[in-house]
Amino acid sequence: VFPSLAQAQASVANEVYRELGQPSVFLFCPTEYCSSLCSPSPSQSCYLLTIGQELLPGIGVIWTGPKVVSQELSATQLEEVEGVLRRRPVIWDNLYANDYDCRRVFLGPYMGRAPGLMPRLHGLLLNPNCELQANFIPIHTLGSWFRSELGSCAHPDHAGMETATALEDSQGSEEGSYSPQDALELALRDWVAEINRQALEPGR
Questions:
Q1: What is the pLDDT of residues 87-105, one digit of tens each?
Q2: Molecular function (GO) terms listed (predicted)?
Q3: In the chain, where are the structural domains located?
Q4: For the segment 125-173, what is each residue's pLDDT rounded down to a tens digit?
Q5: H/E/C letters for each residue in the chain?
């Protein structure tokens, strides 16, 4: 029926999207969801070019970066993806994912993401460790990164301004750009406080 996999996927995704009334959040994960899976590159991938052309503009497209687990993300990389997909990508960040090797747990700060990425993103999802409580530092430091990104946006939208104000009111404003080490120290301090609070609960 379809001349290519990409056209088949886009057609089905578009049909489901319309059937659901074109919801505000509808995400599509392409078969080529990172640079290393593209042939020969994201900007020259026939598959991604077709997805970008055929997929309705209201549908978000998931992207993990240069690799399935990307150590770094840059604005240049995201600009290339945005160009071929004709929309800003939704980053599915596997930095902390350990489902492929459950012998390891990742507890470091959120890092390797260049400053100023927010204008290049339609959204960001963090794929966490499988162990729930081990995600305190990853999520806490992601929050610190997000606050610094909101503060550095040249033209944040009104909703972003409200979010930034609420975060600063609740957690205190931070000066300067994001520092993984500072974010880690802040997360550790808050985690110890949370552990001590739970230790005092009845039945602990």
A1: 999 999 999 999 999 899 9
A2: beta-N-acetylglucosaminidase activity
A3: 5-153+179-200
A4: 999 999 998 999 999 999 999 999 988 764 444 444 343 444 444 344 4
A5: CCCCHHHHHHHHHHHHHHHCCCCCCCEECCCCCCHHHCCCCHHHCHHHHHHHHHCCCCCEEEECCCCCCCCCECHHHHHHHHHHHCCCCEEEECCCCCCCCCCCCCCCCCCCECCCCHHHCCEEEECCCCCHHHHHHHHHHHHHHHHHHHHHCCCCCHHHHHHHHHHHHHHCCCCCCCCHHHHHHHHHHHHHHHHHHHHCCCCC
